[in-house]
Amino acid sequence: MKEKYLFVPPTPRFTNKVIDKKELKRLMAWAFSNYGTGRASYMADRLKELGFHYATRAGISLSVEDLRVPPTKRNLLNRTNEAIQLTEEQYGEEKSQLLKDFKGS
């Protein structure tokens, strides 16, 4: 089933220029706020593949050490997921309480 949007996300305009780290950050923030997590993540993956493609063509080498995931990442992800779960539980409790209050009045 096709999703129906309440609004049509804006189309990015074509810009032919070199993008530095700051500009890439700005572009990805724009994508997340206008397209949502799914499409923005897909866009980030495609940009990464594009970067690897041209790095390979340019003869730039990357080592495994360059791609190493920091050891603190797992702990950070776990804490973040716990915070999300707690927030969702609190939201559910508040929603339930609001429904009770609404039905009671």
Word description of this protein:
The protein has 105 residues and is mainly alpha-helical. It folds into 2 domains: 1-62, no CATH class; 70-105. 68% of the residues lie in helices and 0% in strands. It has helices at residues 21-58, 72-104. It starts with 20 loop residues before the first helix and ends with a helix. The mean pLDDT is 81.
Order of helices and strands: HH
> How many structural domains are formed by the residues?
2
On the 0 to 100 scale, the average pLDDT is 81
| Model regions low in confidence, pLDDT < 50 over at least 5 residues | none
How many H/I helical runs? 2
Keywords:
single chain, 2 domains, mainly alpha
SSE arrangement:
Layout: H1 21-58, H2 72-104
Concise account of the structure shown:
With 105 residues, this protein is an all-alpha fold. The chain has 2 helices and no strands.
